Amino acid sequence: MAKNHGPSIKNDEQYEALRNKGMSKEKAARIANTKDSGKKGGKATPYEERTKEQLYQKAKEIGIDGRSQMNKKQLINALRNH
């Protein structure tokens, strides 16, 4: 049974699995707190197929600093490593 991480984490089991894979606390929490977390997967358009504007909006949603100065390749890298 997964440790209870408090009310701020909606899916403790998934949070722990993501942290064990090396994800940051912020990224693991964001994924574990998404609606239907653990039930979705593989349906998102790959970053390479998205427009720079779509990538910018996703970076804005996540809160990536410096996104306005990034090109498409840099946005993809920042999104994957945030």
From TrEMBL:
Annotated Rho termination factor-like N-terminal domain residues: 51-79
The family database entries (Pfam families) matched by this protein are listed as:
DUF7218, Rho_N
Which stretches does the entry tag as region Disordered? Answer: 1-52
Q: Where is the composition biased (Basic and acidic residues)?
A: 10-29
Q: What is this protein called?
A: Rho termination factor N-terminal domain-containing protein
Native species of this protein?
Jejudonia soesokkakensis
